[in-house]
Design brief:
heterotrimer; A mainly alpha; B alpha/beta; C mainly alpha; B: alpha/beta; C: mainly alpha; 14 helices
């Protein structure tokens, strides 16, 4: 039953995505070109990386609102470590990434150690991490990165953007971990019934801590790619991304109550959103009109799910 | 029974006539008639699953009867919602007190029926004054009406629920195991309050397992068994033994399978184990092949002791030895790895993930074992679940069926399958047959005997005295977090255990 | 004996006040301490001008936080309130510039706001979709709708009579009156009406509320509509406090509003809190922001300070709850 339901939501979503792609291709001949599609893939990679971790977070019944701020903080630290502290750029990248990962771990620690609801814990760190980024940078941007650094955000491997490879590999790893390993089963069990999971000998706190840490790490990774793509570092990077990311995950069929969801669904949700954004703007819909469509699609998809599935829950 | 209604001229504030109720084809209340007189305390007794709670839910309007009629003051009525029962003067003091922890005492008493001043505005002064009066009339003058309910003790919260019923001007008050989680001092106060209500003409349906209270308070007693009415008697005309035999209905030793084999070496030993104030200096020994019964009232520390052994609430003092070696059990994983399994009391919350499949549930405690490399072996998971279904006789469509679609007995078998898959040597079973029909109950009892026969050490917690007596090779009685009595199989009787439970209660109060 | 009699009747009014408003008193004391300390270091902090700008410039946040507090007390959340305020401001400004009477320019957007939030409430209550998902979708719709309709053009040259936040009866900016009066009205409403108490009950224990004869669904729709009313008024204040309306969603406004509610003592778990606390917390933020400038601390650290404050408040709340149970 559960497996069937997963498949059903993903099938609906896949069909929806195909229809959207077809319609958008018909509306604009620029849409369905290899160049455009690869470019769109490049644009969705950063959000996509974080969304993979967010899927785990939401599957356990949690949420992480601070990912956008971790992106901003990591980006700023990268610039500061390199330019102000004077570390070599590779070391600065590593150090910034470590800080992003630590920020994620801190979320997990607050949530598991003090039983703070994830929504409120990460709301606090959303403000805190963004505030640190602003305070450290004092709104100064960092520019002038060496040419080789732009490979991560702008380079290609075998004709495909570097970050799309990264997203692809990360997606496969995430699918395997969530779908096929004991860790993944533990995540679902925690989201469906945390007490029963604990009574079954599952390491609830450790599992959650890993997941929030991973969200921090992938946010940091997304930040490095983002900086490399746009060649500059600013403290407002990633502002509001948490909502885009959560929208993608929820649209992909992951239940905000936890216990249900798949990586495939998340990827489909992200593709659908990106295709709508790009296709509609190519078809002449004004820039932000596409956001309206995304909002409608989100509410519509969840509403349809709720109506089809009346006897949801434990 | 011929005395009923003849000597008493007053009409019954509530009467049920041949009421029946089924859930999913399972008839839980069968042709039961029940009546109340004004100012009467009427005890309702029966084993778990006898139909008591369904019957009181019908009276409270939470369930609708399939057959039969309800009369209020002689008039037939239909209850569609709890509101209807409220309006007819029937109130319930629930076991899981339905209060709002963040609102004050006064507000809780009057929520949904607040006194209004001009412009429909809540009249706080009247509300507080009347709350004060109500609590004073319940001899609870010491209760601060402005305190938030969340900070109050269970006994105080219960008094608030009773005050709430009085504020509704209830004529019938249903009390569902009101003393189940009270300390002795609170029990005495509650009994005074019940007498006080009785004197005011409130009819009280009193559901309880505790014999001393029933003999002290009740005028009449009705016994239910397997959903049917067994008898209604004047309390003065019956004694405890008669009541027990009415409840159980058949000789106990025939109901339970006999012991197979002999008890072996000590496998689990507790030495002065404590957890905060709920588990106090527990020392016990559990042997291979033995079923050790742990009796006691709810809140006496039985489940708390189990949770400490299982690592949910790790011991704060004392020593736990397994095979003679001291162990620190700080988590359920550790307990599992030491060969301890725990079948929890609350199946839906603690035992199972009801929204997942049988397969997923059975695999939950042995995920590591079912993993090859880093991946879960899906075939082995399915095989494990299919094997469990045949081995335990789980009635299900297959491993993919959702657990929440199974009956109580089959759900309990899934919990058992999950834990027996870990190959435990020590099995703790907390209320192993609660809410399970008679057939599945017998199957689980048989399984327990078989496991013990194969050398498993079983610690069984049960509130059903017949089960404790029938299944245990030895019985420990707990109270106030301590072990207060021990009986061998040969010299244990219902009376002895019951008395020990009550007596120890008084003693712990004096201590 | 007298002490016993006192407990019998209930605690004194003073004790009840302290007990019921612990968090609010902490926030109020923080504001006072801030004024004394910062004023001592830099007396210009206490100038009329600065105090006016602290209170008047942030009144709309306080007003929005009143509604948000009710939403959170009922056990829900609204992440779209910032976008809604942006939309309200734009609609109101457009109506005013196009010559509609000010009553329509003020009233129509408020009705719109209530309608939007009532439908959000209905979705949340009857389909059981979590409020964070519905309001997330609503955030996209409002934000995208706003920018695509206005193209981000600013609205200016609004008639003087429309600029309600800039009016100064008795020398005090009218935004301050709004903040104070609405806070008091909301506090009375929460305390003295069945609906107000039902909000607490639904947030505290939904099933027990149903058993007590409260209709939880209707309560949720009602509380969202009420939140829409406050968001609408906040939008009007926001629209009229400056000479131009930027026609964009004020960044992070929803988080500022939610934070004000939480720091003011509203528990994110529902069932607890007062609207007075959220107003005080909104004032406290404004004071901290201003104080950092007067203390020559870089204002860039403001948000980090706020983040730490939320974290500290929440941890204290969790500790208090743990002790209570």
């Amino acid at each position: 039953m559960t497996a069937e339901r997963f498949l059903r939501h993903e099938t609906i979503l896949a069909v929806l995505t195909v229809i959207a792609l077809a319609v958008l291709a018909a509306l604009s001949d620029k849409f369905f070109t290899v160049e455009n599609l690869l470019n769109q893939g490049r644009l969705m990679s950063e959000v996509g990386l974080v969304a993979l971790a967010m899927t785990f977070v939401i599957v356990t019944g949690g949420i992480d609102l601070s990912v956008g701020s971790i992106i901003g903080l990591t980006a700023i630290l990268l610039g500061v470590f390199w330019k102000n502290v004077g570390l070599p750029l590779p070391a600065a990248m590593f150090a910034a990434l470590a800080c992003g990962t630590f920020a994620g771990w801190a979320n997990g620690f607050i949530i598991t150690r003090f039983s703070v609801p994830p929504l409120i814990a990460t709301l606090a760190t959303l403000a805190l991490y963004r505030g640190l980024a602003e305070g450290i940078s004092e709104a100064r941007s960092v520019r002038g990165y060496p040419e080789w650094f732009f490979f991560f955000g702008q380079g290609e491997v075998l004709g495909v953007p570097f970050q799309l490879w990264l997203l692809g590999i990360a997606t496969v790893i995430a699918i395997v971990i969530l779908g096929l390993t004991p860790f993944g089963r533990a995540a679902y069990a925690i989201g469906a019934n945390e007490t029963a999971a604990r009574f079954s000998g599952i390491r609830v706190h450790a599992t959650k801590l890993w997941i929030y840490t991973a969200a921090g790490f992938l946010s940091g990774l997304a930040a490095v790619i983002f900086v490399s793509r746009v060649t500059t570092t600013r403290s407002d990077m990633g502002t509001g991304w948490e909502l885009d990311i959560i929208t993608g995950v929820v649209l992909g069929g992951t239940s905000i109550f936890g216990g249900r969801g798949t990586i495939i669904g998340t990827v489909l949700g992200l593709v659908l959103i990106q295709a709508l954004k790009n296709g509609l703007s190519l078809s002449g819909v004004k820039g932000d009109g596409t956001i309206v469509v995304i909002g409608l699609v989100l509410i519509g998809a969840i509403l349809a799910g709720a109506l089809f599935d009346k006897n949801r829950g434990g | 029974m011929s005395t009923e209604g003849v000597t008493d001229q007053r009409v019954a504030p509530i009467e049920l006539r041949s009421v029946s109720k089924s859930f999913g084809g399972n008839r839980v209340v069968n042709q039961v008639s029940f009546d109340m007189r004004p100012g009467e305390v009427h005890a309702l007794m029966g084993e778990n699953g006898a139909g008591k709670s369904t019957l009181i839910k019908i009276m409270a309007g939470l369930h609708q009867a399939d057959e039969g009629e309800i009369l209020i003051n002689g008039q037939p009525v239909k209850f569609v919602s709890p509101r209807d029962a409220h309006d007819r003067g029937i109130a319930t003091v629930h076991q899981e007190l339905l209060l709002f922890p963040e609102l004050t005492v006064a507000e809780n008493i009057f929520l949904g029926q607040t006194p209004k001043g001009r412009f429909g505005v809540i009249d706080w002064d009247t509300m507080r004054r009347r709350s004060r009066e109500l609590l004073d009339s319940l001899d609870s003058g010491d209760l601060d009406i402005d305190r938030k309910v969340g900070s109050l003790s269970v006994g105080n919260r219960q008094r608030i629920e009773i005050a709430r019923a009085l504020a509704q001007d209830a004529r019938v008050l249903i009390m569902d195991e009101p003393t189940a989680s009270l300390g002795e001092a609170d029990v005495q106060r509650l009994m005074d309050i019940v007498r006080n209500l009785k004197a005011r003409g409130v009819a009280i349906v009193y559901v309880s397992h505790r014999m001393p209270e029933i003999f002290a308070l009740a005028d009449r007693v009705t016994v239910l068994r397997d959903g049917s009415h067994v008898a209604t008697r004047q309390v003065s005309e019956v004694d405890e033994t008669q009541l027990v035999s009415m409840m159980v209905g058949r000789p106990i030793d025939k109901l339970y399978p006999p012991k197979l084999g002999e008890s072996g070496d000590v496998i689990l030993e507790l030495k002065d184990v404590s957890y905060r104030s709920t588990v106090r200096n527990i020392s016990l020994q559990l042997r291979r092949g033995e079923i050790l019964g742990l009796a006691g009232l709810v809140g006496s520390g039985r489940t708390e002791t189990a949770l400490t052994i299982f690592g949910i609430t790790p011991a704060t003092a004392g020593q736990i030895l397994i095979d003679g070696a001291p162990q620190v059990i700080a988590s359920p994983e550790r307990a599992r790895d030491l060969g301890i399994a725990y079948i929890p009391e609350d199946r839906g919350q603690q035992g199972l993930i009801r929204s997942q499949t049988i397969k997923e549930n059975v695999a939950l405690a042995i995920l590591k074992k079912l993993t090859r490399g880093i991946l879960i072996d899906a075939q082995r998971v399915t095989a494990e679940a299919a094997n469990a279904i045949t081995k335990f006789g789980i009635r299900a469509r297959g491993p993919e069926q959702l657990v929440r679609q199974l009956s109580g007995g089959n759900q309990q078998k899934v919990v058992l399958a999950k834990w027996l898959a870990t190959n435990p040597r020590i099995l703790i079973m907390d209320e192993p047959t609660r809410g399970i029909d008679v057939g599945a109950k017998a199957e689980i009892h048989l399984l327990m005997r078989k496991l013990a026969g194969d050398g498993m050490a079983i610690l069984m917690i049960s509130s059903e005295l017949p089960e404790v007596l029938g299944m245990s090779d030895r019985v420990l009685v707990m109270n106030g977090g301590r072990i207060t009595a021990e009986f061998a199989k040969t010299d244990v009787t219902a009376e002895a255990v019951g008395t020990a439970m009550t007596r120890s209660h008084v003693r712990s109060d004096a201590a | 004996m007298t002490a016993a009699a006192a407990t019998r009747i209930g605690r004194s009014n003073f004790q009840r006040f302290i007990g019921g408003y612990g968090q609010e008193i902490v926030v109020l004391l923080s504001i006072v301490v801030l004024f004394v300390v910062v004023g001592a270091v830099n007396p210009r902090f206490l100038s009329d001008n600065n105090i006016n700008s602290i209170f008047a410039g942030n009144a709309y946040i306080a007003v929005a936080a009143i509604g948000m507090s009710m939403i959170i007390m009922a056990g829900h959340i609204d992440v779209s309130v910032g976008a809604l305020i942006g939309v309200i401001a734009t609609i109101a400004g457009t109506l005013a510039v196009n010559g509609y009477p000010v009553w329509i320019a003020w009233g129509l957007p408020i009705l719109f706001s209530m309608a939007v939030n009532a439908s959000v409430g209905a979705l949340v209550a009857y389909t059981r979709i979590p409020s964070i998902v519905v309001t997330l979708g609503m955030l996209s719709i409002l934000k995208g709708g706003l920018i695509s309709v206005t193209n981000g053009e600013w609205i200016s040259n609004m008639p003087v009579e429309f600029m309600i936040a800039q009016m100064r009866p008795f020398g005090i900016p009218s935004a301050v009156y709004f903040m104070v009066v609405l806070t008091i009205l909301a506090a009375l409403f929460m305390r003295y009406t069945d609906f107000g108490r039902a909000i607490y009950a639904v947030g505290g224990n939904m099933e027990a509320a149903r058993a007590a004869g409260i209709n939880p669904e209707r309560t949720v729709v009602g509380v969202f509509a009420l939140h829409g009313l406050f968001a609408g008024i906040a939008g009007i204040l926001f629209a009229t406090q400056l000479q131009v309306i930027q026609s964009t969603v004020p960044p992070n406004l929803e988080l500022t509003v939610i934070t004000a509610s939480v720091i003011g003592g509203v528990s994110i778990l529902g069932g607890i809190g007062t609207v007075i606390g959220s107003t005080l917390a909104a004032i406290l933020f404004a004071c901290i922001g201003s104080a950092l400038i007067f203390l020559n601390v870089s204002a860039y650290w403001l948000r980090a300070v706020l983040g730490l404050m939320i974290l500290a408040t929440v941890l204290a709340d969790m500790a208090r709850r743990r002790r209570a149970t």
